[in-house]
Amino acid sequence: MPVAPSKPSNSAAPAGAENVDMPRRQPRLAKIPLLKMFVPPEALAPALTGTESAATDGSHAPLDVTPFSLPGSRLRSSPSAAARGWYAPALAGAPTTTRQAEILNTGIIGAPTGIEGVVNGTDNLSSTMICHDAPTAYNMTPRRITSPNVLVLGTVGSGKSSFTKTVLVMRPLLLRNHRAVVFDKKDQGGEGEYSSVARRLGAAPLRFDPDGSGTRLNLMDPLIASGTGLQGQMLLINAVARIARNDLPASEWEEKATRYALQNLFAEMEATDTTRAATTADLLPHLGDVPGDQNLSDLAKERFHQAGLSIRFGLENLLETYAGVFDGETSRNVDLAHKLTTFDVSQLPDDGPAVPTVMAIGNMWLMGRLRHERGYITNVVYEEGWHMIGGPSARLVKANQKLSRSLGISNVFVMHKGTDIPEDSPGYTVVQEAQTVYAFRQDRDEDARWVNQTFNFAPDTAETLMKLEVGNCVFKYGSNPETHMHHVRSDWEIDATNTDEAMAAGAATA
Length: 510
Ligand SMILES: Nc1ncnc2c1ncn2[C@@H]1O[C@H](COP(=O)(O)OP(=O)(O)OP(=O)(O)O)[C@@H](O)[C@H]1O
Ligand SMILES: [Mg+2]
Hints:
Protein name: ATP/GTP-binding protein
Radius of gyration: 35 Å
Helix content: 25-40%
InterPro entries: P-loop_NTPase
Bound molecules: adenosine-5'-triphosphate, magnesium ion
Organism: Cryobacterium breve
Region (Disordered): 1-24
Structural class: alpha/beta
Strand content: 5-15%
Largest sheet: 11 strands, mixed
CATH architecture of the largest domain: 3-Layer(aba) Sandwich
């Protein structure tokens, strides 16, 4: 800034005032044009402020110069210097200060995660890599999160399954002692969308067929009682009966009658000394048994009998409709022989009890199976997880949260939106407990607001959620602030995870 010479003044002119003329009594060096750069600022202060008395008695205030009042270094723009490799900018410098420029420097924005776990994608703000694996974060000391459960939310086609297949299924399989179990709901060319992923990794999908020609799961599988006890078996029968009876909860009488039937069945199995496992068909005749040695009135006995029968009819309906899926012993191929196990329920009807029943039995079967094989981390993925936490089975998940953590299970629920889950339901508790959330695009304002409130996102994130591109999501773990993330896939992963092959094939032949 050009400065106009003016008379020195005795008044305490503010720092940065226009008066920068050299006073008479300044140090000698300050008078010599080139050498004055070596003069300490204190000596120059009176010269800059024009305060003579301060210079003489040495009691002047410390130098305080605002950057705007100083001319700053002049930018050189010399083509000849530039040609010789010197710094010679052609453009005038920007009128900014270092502090203003700092805010534009993304280099100082910290990476949202460390490098533990698996790569998820990149942070859209800082372009740094985001790494996270819920069980890894849970097992760290100190714990980064208090629950290993994960929620993946987003509207149709927003990229949830592509993300889940890569980040929550395939990549964690590379980690030591990790495996994955998937309940695969979406049909892709006559089979589940994870079937090709399973085959690429050398595993055979477990296919469930409504005609009974596929895999079978036994509601009474011995692993269930050995994993979660009689109480766990009771909970499962109650949940399945409730699913089969259109969400009608069991009454006190019905629960008592079911427990009595179970005890009778186990006593009978022990007495007959059979090596085969009990099945649902073995339980049915006992539902309706009435205790003889108790002081029950005839009316009470009749009520007890009827309570047992109503559970029996519900289960009978299920067995008759899905013969071959739930009757008999669990198929031999239901095992955790491979690192990836997929329960392909894509061919079972969308509505009705079959899908949630497979998920409920599968969940309890896993609990028993893992009890006998500790030391593994298992990501259990529920595609269309609403079937599991939006209905009666949520009670099972909630009751077994602690046990499943101790068995190394990380439950992953993939669903479109959360607004369908009643706030006072066990499913809502399960959702709230998830400490890792990947929220993909939400189309409806109320769904976006639900995500914002439930996971305590910043208020303006609701708007971001409604504008997310495919393959982008808002990611949050623990109490860390949420991050806008782009999911990155390798070419191999793109090939393995794309779900619009049928559409693409149609377009190619059109
Ligand atoms: N990271 C990504 N980058 C670019 N495109 C992607 C990405 N992830 C997914 N897509 C595209 O979006 C399509 C739909 O993805 P995906 O099946 O994962 O969605 P979805 O949310 O699971 O859908 P649905 O609700 O129907 O199950 C994919 O076939 C792919 O073409
Ligand atoms: Mg999907």
